[in-house]
Amino acid sequence: MTLQQLKYVITVAETGTITEAANRLYVSQPSLTNAIHELEKEMNIVIFNRTNKGITLSKEGDDFLGYARQVLEQAAILEDKYKGNPGGKKQFCVSTQHYSFAVNAFVDLIKQYGQEEYDFSLRETQTYEIIEDVAHLRSEIGILFLNDFNEAVLSKLLKSHDLEFHQLFVASPHVFISRKHPLAGNSIITNEELEEYPYLSFEQGEHNSFYFSEEIFSDFERRKNIRVRDRATLFNLLIGLNGYTVCSGVIDKKLNGKDIIAVPLADESDMRIGYITHRKGMLSRLGTTYLEALQKYLG
Q1: CA atoms of 129 and 121, how far apart (whole Å)
Q2: Is there a contact between 260 and 238 (Cβ–Cβ < 8 Å)?
Q3: HTH lysR-type domain spans which residues (predicted)?
Q4: Full residue range of the structural domain in which residue 16 is found
């Protein structure tokens, strides 16, 4: 197995065709096909399924690619350290629930390592997809929360995917509302006071159960519910409809806007916010730097 072979299979997976991958890699199609066949034979796996309609990534191929990306990233870091050159295009991906501090840390990472070439991804996505991304090493780090309600279910899922949870901080529940909301002047808000207002939450797709919710107290019965997919929509509805959502209370005016405030919720429960990593993975320098940047916004 060579680094070149790993680059080949990743490029084929990204382009979806041997022809386009060969053009991008400046090699002949037969050479590319033979190199992949040799790698599959050596590793005793089928990376790509071949049909008369083309090629698709197999399930074991998807797992293999996760490890291949990590090997190439570590090789680039070695070249950067010992050969005195940039070591090629740097790649890094983090998947996260919708937290402003995750975005701020990502910005800091790019400012430090975003040189002439880089390929970074920040995926604000659904909880189950965060777990899947890290499990398949598409993302090096995933950010989510555990609490007394969802911990048993999510911890079991994390264990089955060979993932570890590392706690960053414990947050008490807060309500995000508009600065002009009728309850904005309260020093603390109760669930009873919120009953007449629309409750906003991030929808979770096929896994839209209470256990995968980004919001604490997701199992509470509410008369008015609105589910959204992105942060901007949620904040616009908070302002336009006097809606609310329940969150960690960590707020950033640059990202969330000056019209959104966080008010403590009258409940003793908490959110244990942290990050997940793969047990078989090794944290890269980019990953370590990103976690250090996170701490700056949580202190």
Answers
A1: 14
A2: yes
A3: 1-58
A4: 1-84
